[in-house]
Write a structure and sequence with these properties.
Elements: E1 4-15, H1 33-44, E2 49-51, E3 64-74, E4 77-87, E5 92-93, E6 104-105, E7 110-120, E8 128-135, H2 141-155, E9 177-183, H3 187-196, E10 198-209, E11 216-225, H4 229-243, H5 246-250, H6 258-268, H7 271-274, E12 280-286, E13 292-295, E14 306-309, H8 315-328
Helix pairs in contact: 1-2, 3-4, 4-6
Length: 342
């Protein structure tokens, strides 16, 4: 059974691929960024953008497709639907026995779902908010942001693949405005999630670069069940440390690298494990709602899904749930003030 929820992101704008200075949303090249974003989203309407995995990705190497299906403007709020899926996820679409039709070959298609998104871009300040729907923990926000960056490059006359249009800034020179989106985190939720969760397993990984120098591949994995109360307490403390303070999170900065986090976790398992040169770690836990989550150093995506249950809300219900969450939490400057969330 599918479960529904949403993730929240702090949204900002930077100049070019290497710019670090936050730009006032009300004055991005002489106009409000909402105007820029509306144009970019409309440019992406009904067009599938291919998102290839970045070289640093160590997971599935299959490309994904993302498409903006609708966009609606209401003041400085932009909302709509986005479809996303992974190519090669399924082999065949079976026909219904009552239809007498034929099976459909899905091997070269991206089987997809639609997800809802909402941007809030206030008149004042350099930070906006983005909510993107989740379905059974899947969320197309990273692919959506990459497609917007790709469209911004295209609008500026810079031809570049969507997978390269990211914060690494490797694209050729030119003036364009890069959207950035960092997961917004709720301090109270961090502690409650970890304290109330059942820690299940620790995974430690080591990777090597593939022969073509295009991506990292896993060459070693050690998995251990978390049974000792002492280990659970130690791992819980490590997890809380990975999020650091609000200023780190506001700037979208991880407090520890993947390799440093792996060393912390390996040390809990004893000197023999600590002596192995692992470069990444993952902690699997089950939260108070029975949802399994895998947390990695510097990664907040899995932890901060705001659950809405197994019944999909209406568009109005989705907007209301997101808006209530945005207004009810002290975000410590990560997100716009409550009065701007309309």
């Amino acid at each position: 059974m599918a479960t529904y929820g949403f993730k929240l992101f702090a949204v900002g704008v930077r100049k070019g691929g290497n710019g670090r200075k936050a730009i006032e949303l009300s004055d991005v090249d002489g106009k409000h960024y909402g105007d820029h974003l509306e144009e970019l989203l409309e440019g992406l309407l009904d067009r599938v953008v291919l998102i290839k995995p970045a070289a640093k990705d160590t997971g599935d190497s299959r490309p994904r497709g993302v498409r903006i299906d609708t966009v609606k403007r209401n003041g400085h709020r932009l909302s709509g639907k986005v479809s996303a899926g992974r190519f090669g996820d399924h082999d065949l679409g079976m026909h219904h026995p009552d239809d007498g039709g034929e099976d459909a070959d899905l091997s070269e298609l991206a089987t997809s779902r639609f997800y809802r998104y909402i941007f809030w871009l206030p008149d004042k300040g350099d930070v906006g908010a983005l909510a993107v729907e989740t379905i059974s923990r899947s969320c197309p926000a990273p692919q959506m942001i990459k497609s917007i960056r790709s469209e911004a490059l295209k609008a500026a006359g810079i031809e570049e693949d969507a997978s390269d249009a990211d914060e690494d800034g490797d694209e050729p020179g030119g003036t364009w405005w890069r959207i950035v989106a960092n997961v917004a985190t709720d301090d109270g939720r961090i502690g409650a999630m970890i304290d109330n969760a059942a820690l299940e397993t620790i995974d430690l990984m080591r990777h090597e670069t593939t022969s073509d120098n295009k991506r990292q591949q896993e060459v070693m994995r050690l998995s251990a069940a978390v049974r000792s109360e002492k280990v659970k307490d130690q791992v819980g403390g490590i997890l809380k440390g990975w999020w650091g303070d609000a200023e780190h999170r506001r700037r979208g900065r991880a407090t520890v690298t993947s390799a440093a986090g792996a060393k912390q976790v390996a040390a809990v398992l004893g000197p023999e494990v600590a002596a192995i040169d692992f470069d990444d770690a993952a902690i699997t836990l089950v939260d108070e709602n029975g949802v399994t989550k895998k947390i990695k150093p510097g990664s907040l995506n899995e932890a901060f899904i705001y659950e809405l249950g197994d019944e999909r809300p209406s568009d109005a219900g989705f907007l209301s749930a997101v808006r209530n969450t945005l207004r009810s939490v002290d975000w410590h400057g990560q997100l716009p003030s409550a009065e701007t969330i309309t």
